[in-house]
Amino acid sequence: MDRYLGRWNVIANIPYYLENGKVATYDTYAKRPDGKLDNIFTFRRGGFDAPEVSWHGTAWVTNTTTNAEWKVRFIWPFSSTYLVLELDPDYRWAVVGTPGRGLLWILARDRQMSAADYEHVLTLIEQQGYDRKKIKPVPQPGP
């Protein structure tokens, strides 16, 4: 779990209304004293020059054998199940989705992902039943 902590830039996602119009988005995960995680979602609305806005949530692992099943809550009492579907052995990128395949995020430590890595990730998630045509890049500033 410790290797997963820190900043993850959102490279692409299956868009939904809460993320429409947001750019330069990233999630930051940090341990809390109670064993849960702070999940801070940071973004800019409409353009890279807009001010950063952050939403503060809480996450906790529900499957401690794999650490790949989580609950995430941004608004009490609602929580969502998140699944870490794919994870680069070096923790350079990760793919998180929901059980019904309605939502998906491609995350990376860097703001940009190589075309080869991106294509590889799309192939992996397509094999898990996701429609790659629904996945849209999230604009990120240059390095």
Share of β-strand residues = over 45%
Q: How would you write the strand order of the largest sheet?
A: 1-2-3-4-5-6-7-8
The CATH topology = Lipocalin
Helical residues, percent: under 10%
The low-confidence parts are none
> What general form does the structure show?
globular
SS-based structural class?
mainly beta
Q: What can you see in these coordinates?
A:
The chain is mainly beta and 143 residues long. It has one domain: Lipocalin, CATH 2.40.128.20. The protein has one helix and nine strands, in the order ββββββββαβ. The chain has an eight-stranded antiparallel β-barrel with strand order 1-2-3-4-5-6-7-8. Strand 7 and strand 8 (104-108) form a beta hairpin. The two termini are 26 Å apart.
Task: Show the helix and strand layout.
Blueprint: E1 6-13, E2 22-31, E3 37-45, E4 52-61, E5 69-75, E6 78-87, E7 93-97, E8 104-108, H1 115-127, E9 136-137
Antiparallel strand pairs: 1-2, 1-8, 1-9, 2-3, 3-4, 4-5, 5-6, 6-7, 7-8
Please name the defining characteristics of this protein.
8-stranded antiparallel beta barrel; globular; 46% strand; Lipocalin; mainly beta; 1 helix; 143 residues
